[in-house]
Amino acid sequence: MYSNLRAEMARKRIMITQISSHLKLRHATVSDKINGKFRFYYAEAFEIKKTFFPEHNLEYLFEFEENEAN
């Protein structure tokens, strides 16, 4: 899960629909990626950072935390 990305989205009130629309991906696809089901491609991560979070670096936004509960 990308907890830092989720936190920054909440701080700036950015919705998954905004990101999915910008990346031209389905809402469910972006949601799955944010929740850690699939990984973001570098180009997608860079575009999210550049467009929505230019004040943060990629390493911070896309630090991946494995979900312990299985």
Secondary-structure map with pairings?
Layout lengths: L2 H10 L3 H8 L3 H8 L7 H11 L5 H4 L9
Question: If you had to describe this structure to a student in words, what would you say it looks like?
Answer:
The chain is an all-alpha fold and 70 residues long. Helices cover 59% and strands 0% of the residues. Helix 2 (16-23) crosses helix 3. The longest helix has 11 residues, at 42-52. The relative contact order is 0.23.
For the record, the count of structural domains works out to 1
For the record, give the distance between the C-alpha atoms at the N and C termini, rounded to a whole number. 13 Å
What's the CATH class, please?
Mainly Alpha
Mean of residue pLDDT values: 95
Beta-sheet strand percentage?
Answer: under 5%
Order of helices and strands: HHHHH
For this entry, what is the oligomeric state of its chains?
Answer: single chain
Which features does this protein show?
mainly alpha, 70 residues, globular
In brief, what are we looking at here?
The protein has helices at 3-12, 16-23, 27-34, 42-52, 58-61. It is an all-alpha fold.
